[in-house]
Automatic annotation (TrEMBL):
The keyword Heme does not apply. This is Alpha-amylase family glycosyl hydrolase. One of its GO terms (molecular function) is hydrolase activity. Residues 1-18 form the signal peptide. Coiled coil: none annotated. It comes from Jejuia spongiicola. Keywords: Hydrolase, Signal. InterPro entries: GH, GH13_cat_dom, Ig-like_fold, Ig_E-set, Secre_tail. Pfam families: Alpha-amylase, Por_Secre_tail. Residues 375-743 form the Glycosyl hydrolase family 13 catalytic domain.
Length: 918
């Protein structure tokens, strides 16, 4: 599990600014001195006694949205540059904008429409939420309703005072549901006592007339209506359901809640009795008709007249704070957030979604005992953070020999720039990487190359934007409430981040199962890697760090239940991989049940590559060494969590005389030896992205391997580092590819259950005995910094051929020691020139120049070239027999990123990214 930043909870409620802020004057203009009074009651600052600071700017007519603040004072979190409020009471503070807005904010001639402000405590760990916006009026006649607030809710027969104020003397009038209730002549204030004698929606309007000019303001309030109890129709899932008959049904599990309304673009985001959800036990539901099939709608649930939340089972959300930073290239035509109608995340749906036509319909998953997994973070694997960009590198991965890609979390996470382990919506694809059809294209393209796709899922915890947290929240203690159906108020293990799921709860089980099923059914993913699966426990003492890895029968039962659901109801051969790291007795039970489990051998392999004998034993990579029945250890030398081997090789490598591991070339050679041993031990393997090229950029800051404070930050993409021109790196690439291809082409040898290891010291030996009896293999390596003798334990005498050096030896004494130079490795078999599929990266199809302004060439003979835009529309086709380096003219295409699907005369297909410039 990763060390990720623990963000404070964002309690997304719908509050107009007047519920926490008042101003003098009531109707402020840009030329006024304005006193803002903040009442912290009910906020994160409730009861706080220290200094409160304002992070503030303005919204102007040039702002693109309410997140586009202008003329911000100081910088976020720097109290030395932020205005300090004056405490005026136990929970009240004042901020004075003086002498006027243009002077205070240095806004010049810009027309200011709102003051934007967030109030924060001195340490920045508590603040007002959501952002507060104070309207600034134009000079002259204006009117505002001072009571009640917009969207206020009342009970039948409640009596209230309706009041309004104008900026100058005028004739005032109050109306309720378009019926005049009160008038006043030549004044600035008006009020009226009013009793609600019926339920439902009410419109309150205030108008001010002076001479021939009239200004009005209108708000909506609601008088509570009774929720109807009715049995939910059968066959529905939680969340949005398309019934196939033009109607849709929404389902929300919300135990202990009384009233839920559906609000959205289809009802102008207002409370409407026709959209009050029916109740069946703990479940609320509502069927809606009359919608436009081709319109995308945004929606939320309004719960118990106090809380607005997105659908926990959202398949897509709109984020008011982060969507603006997603480019149209990554997500073409992203729906605009309903600014002014909603706050916080909103869900969306569309009845007639753009269908995706799957091309690869006969994909067969690789045998899980022989998976070769490439762990990938889309953000740091591509230059554009996109599935589309990642597709252009699939030929590279196929050529390398990868048969599985494991994507770090792609479900909706907080922000756009993340490793993804701060999830908010477990069933929604994060838009920062592209559209749903982009991801389907990625999976489809992988399957067409024989590559499976596994996604990393994060069910240990949820983060603050999750509706599962918001629906049941203890604001006083800033944690999930004791009655939260999904989340524990306090974590049940010592290394939790975010808010800990209770996996013994039936509600959590339903949530996990439904969202897992969605990823398989909708996107055809082939399996899951469960992040921090050891956290799926309710039985551990979080203060006892050592105990939580102990054998836990309840945790085993929970995991087996999830696996049974997937294997019996969704996909019988889905991969189920655990990041567990519990006691071997527990992992043995899970491995024998069919799970695969991560096997972290990073430290031990790095000891070898650096040249140190201490803790150089890598036998834990072997399932037989763990006492397991099946080869279900997903071993790895690097994952996203560890410092890169090459970084430590160069920083701390051992030396002897002129042999120095800190030399780049030497360090890369030793990575070759590590690869020979790593892939030679039977069982599934995982490679962290660019490890095949000896990636040597630190996981931490600026290459400082002791500073982990920015381990989550972006890292350089290998495609930009010139690795291809480094012959030593390409040697490592080719050795890695050779080992991968050997594993795939000769599984009876490289996944044999008949093998012998001697891998405890720096001199290592692997004996693989072919179950068919045709290809026995001996692998030896020396990780010392001096010449060493290694006993190869040949199974037979005669001639043995080294695959890598194309040399041979005549073995007369099978146990006679071999002398190996520092870092030397050999892979012997009785087969001369042991051949595998060509893995030379130089054979890849390439387009150049790229980017280009008018044309490009391809370095291979091709039959057809089809050009697609990022929506999947074919925009250009070249048909014929084109010689190597033929020029393809695309000067008529608009500047953008395109995908070129290239077919050769051998029916081989390649997809390349083409960047078209002006």
């Amino acid at each position: 599990m990763k060390k990720i930043l623990l963000f404070l909870f964002l309690l997304v409620v719908s509050l107009s600014y007047s519920q926490s802020v008042t101003t003098i004057p009531v109707i402020p203009t840009a030329s006024d001195a304005i006193t803002i009074t903040f009442d912290a009651t009910g906020s994160e600052l409730d009861g706080y006694t220290g200094d409160v600071y304002a992070h503030t700017g303005v919204i102007t007519t040039s702002s693109t949205s309410n997140t586009d603040w202008k003329h911000v004072i100081g910088s976020w979190g720097n109290n030395a540059t932020q205005p300090l409020l004056t405490r005026t009471g136990a929970n009240t503070y004042q901020l004075v904008i003086s002498p006027d807005i243009p002077t205070y904010y240095s806004s010049g001639a810009d027309v200011v429409t709102d003051i934007a402000v967030v109030f924060r405590n001195s340490t920045g760990n508590a603040q007002s939420r959501p952002d507060i916006f104070i309207p600034i009026y134009a000079a002259g006649l204006n009117v505002t309703i001072t009571n009640p607030s917009n969207e206020s809710v009342y009970s039948l027969n409640d009596n209230i005072t309706i009041s309004a104020e104008s900026s100058i003397n005028a004739d005032l009038e109050l109306k309720v549901n378009n019926v005049s209730e009160q008038t006043a002549i030549n004044t600035t204030t008006i009020s009226k006592s009013y009793t609600f004698t019926s339920t439902g929606s009410f419109t309150i309007e205030a108008s001010a007339t002076e001479n021939s000019e009239t200004k009005t303001e209108q708000i909506a309030v609601y008088v509570k209506t009774t929720t109807q109890n009715e049995t939910i129709p059968t066959g529905l899932e939680n969340g949005f359901n398309d019934n196939g008959d033009g109607t849709v049904t929404f389902v929300l599990q919300a135990p202990l809640k009384t009233d839920v309304f559906l609000i959205g673009g289809f009802n102008n985001w207002t409370l409407n009795q026709n959209y009050q959800m029916k109740k069946d036990g703990d479940t609320f539901w509502l069927t809606v008709n009359g919608l436009d099939f081709n319109t995308e709608y945004a929606y939320q649930y309004f719960v118990d007249y106090s809380l607005k939340v997105a659908d926990p089972y959202s398949k897509k959300i709109l984020d008011p704070n982060n969507d603006q930073f997603i480019s149209n290239t990554t997500y073409p035509g992203l729906m605009t957030y309903p600014t002014g109608d909603a706050t916080g995340n909103v869900s969306t749906f569309k009845i007639n979604e753009t269908a995706y036509t799957w091309q690869s319909n006969a994909f067969v998953k690789p045998n899980k005992e022989n998976l070769i997994i490439y762990e990938m973070l889309i953000r740091d694997f591509t230059e554009t953070d996109s599935f589309i960009d990642a597709m252009t590198h699939l030929d590279y991965l196929e050529q390398l020999g990868v048969n599985t890609i494991e994507l770090m979390p792609i479900s909706e996470f907080e922000g756009n720039d993340s490793w993804g382990y701060n999830p908010s919506f477990h069933g929604a694809l994060d838009k920062a990487y592209g559209t749903q059809n982009h991801f389907k294209s990625f999976v489809d393209a992988c399957h067409s190359r024989g590559i499976a796709v596994i996604i990393d899922v994060v069910y240990n915890h949820a983060f603050s934007q999750s509706p599962l947290a918001q629906l049941y929240w203890d604001s006083g203690n800033n944690k999930p409430a004791a009655n939260n159906p999904w989340l524990n108020p306090d974590a049940k293990h010592p290394f939790n981040v975010g808010y800990d799921f209770n996996h013994e709860s039936a509600y959590t089980k339903t949530y996990v199962k439904q969202t897992l099923k969605y990823w398989v059914d909708e996107f055809r993913v082939d399996g899951f890697r469960f992040d921090l699966s050891k956290g799926f426990t309710q039985t551990n003492n979080p203060s006892d760090v050592g105990a939580w890895g102990n054998y836990d029968a309840s945790r085993i039962t929970i995991l087996q239940d999830y696996a049974d659901y997937i294997w019996n109801n969704v996909s019988s051969d889905a991969y189920m991989i655990l990041e567990h790291f519990a006691d071997n007795s527990e992992e043995t039970v899970l491995a024998n049940y069919g799970f695969m489990l991560w096997g972290n051998i990073n430290h031990n392999f790095n000891q070898n590559t650096m040249g140190y004998a201490t803790e150089a034993d890598v036998s834990w990579l072997s399932y037989s060494n763990r006492g397991w029945t099946n080869p279900h250890v997903v071993g790895y030398m690097e994952s996203h969590d560890e410092e890169r081997l090459m970084v430590k090789n160069i920083a701390y490598g051992n030396s002897n005389g002129g042999y120095n591991v800190k030399d780049l070339s030497t360090a890369l050679d030793r990575q070759e030896a590590a690869s020979a041993i790593f892939y030679g031990i039977p069982g599934p393997k995982m490679l962290w992205q660019f490890g095949e090229l000896g990636y040597d950029k630190s996981i931490n800051c600026d290459g400082d391997i002791t500073n982990g404070s920015c381990r989550l930050d972006r890292k350089p993409v290998a495609w930009t580092l010139g690795y291809e021109s480094d012959s030593d790196r390409m040697d490592l690439y080719n050795v890695t590819a050779k080992m991968m291809q050997l594993k795939k082409q000769f599984p009876s040898t490289f996944n044999t259950n008949n093998f012998n290891l001697s891998v405890g010291g720096l001199g290592k030996r692997i004996n693989l005995y072919d179950n068919v009896g045709t290809l026995d293999v001996v692998i030896v390596a020396n990780f010392d910094v001096t010449t060493q003798s290694v006993n190869p334990n040949f199974p037979a005498t005669g001639t043995w051929y080294d695959t890598f050096s194309n040399t041979s030896i005549n073995v007369t004494n099978p146990t006679a020691a071999l002398s190996l130079q520092p870092g030397e490795y050999r892979l012997y078999s009785k087969t001369q020139n042991l051949s595998v599929k060509n893995s030379d990266k130089n054979n890849l199809v390439k387009a150049y120049p790229n980017p280009t302004s008018d044309s490009f060439q391809i370095n291979k003979y091709v039959e057809t070239v089809s050009i697609f835009d990022l929506t999947g529309k074919q925009v250009k086709t070249f048909k014929g027999s084109f010689n190597k380096n033929h020029t393809f003219n695309i000067s008529d295409l608009s500047p953008s990123i395109y995908l070129a699907k290239i077919n050769s005369n051998l029916d081989e297909q390649t997809t390349l990214k083409i960047v078209k410039l002006d």
